[in-house]
Amino acid sequence: MMDRRETLKSLLLGGMAAGALVSCAEDVAVQEELPKAALGDYGRTEKEKERDAELLESGPSFTTEELETIAILCDIILPATSSAGSATDADVPDFIDFIVRDMPYHQVPVKGGLMWLNTESNKRFGKVFKDIDNSEQIKIVDDIAYPDRATPEKLPGVKFFNKMRDLTLTGYFTSKMGIKDLGYQGNSPNVWDGVPADVLKEHDMEYTPEWIAKCLDVSKRMDTAKWDDDGNLLT
User: Fold this and answer.
1) Cα separation of 111 and 156, whole Å?
2) Nearest Cα to 102, choosing from 71, 64, 74, 60?
3) Could you give the CA distance from residue 140 to residue 20 in angstroms, rounded to a whole number?
4) N or C: which end of the chain has fewer CB within 10 A?
5) What does the pLDDT profile of the chain (235 residues) look like in tens digits?
6) How many CA atoms lie within 13 A of 47 on its CB side?
7) Taking the CB of residue 234, how many other CB atoms lie within 10 A of it?
């Protein structure tokens, strides 16, 4: 399970999944909980906030049973590890429900895929997907998770699983938990302690104690330098 998560993180960091992230979540903010995010103030215009509220009040896109199945798939794709929660811990099913409301063209492929999944499960194990045990669920998923190995009759399932994988990755890695798991730091101040001593020596230069005290004191790195009219550094 850990190898799978690390592989997915590598794909994201390498930019290979960027298209999926953009296409699935153009207007979704990085938030810990989607319902709160959709109503919160995180840079949205008033019209965007009104639309978010309308979408949340419009009712779920899926039945309870469908959401249970989506949750199972999400956690198969991104299970919990010793260092990070699962997709459902990050409320990814809620995210997918919201995305389908916001982008209705996802509804038919997802609902159709869930029907295909249940049909396949009934045919092989006599129960819908959410009611079979985990080992049986994995057997079905293994048949549709690797497009190059899938048989022709499994191609509808492959297409569905690809979409679910994209939605799950987008939902997880745009959540607070997923950003932390990804290790993304964003823009953050660093500490510059000057040109390395060996480089200065190579050019027969050195910092004077005055410059070191005024310019390379890490405790003063947020202070704004002040100069006199002659161009001399004051502080």
Assistant:
1) 12
2) 60
3) 24
4) C
5) 445 556 555 555 554 444 444 444 444 434 444 444 434 455 678 888 888 888 888 877 899 999 999 999 999 999 998 888 999 999 999 999 999 999 999 999 999 999 999 999 999 999 999 999 999 999 999 999 999 999 999 999 999 999 999 999 999 998 989 888 888 777 766 777 788 889 989 999 988 887 777 777 777 767 777 778 877 777 6
6) 0
7) 8
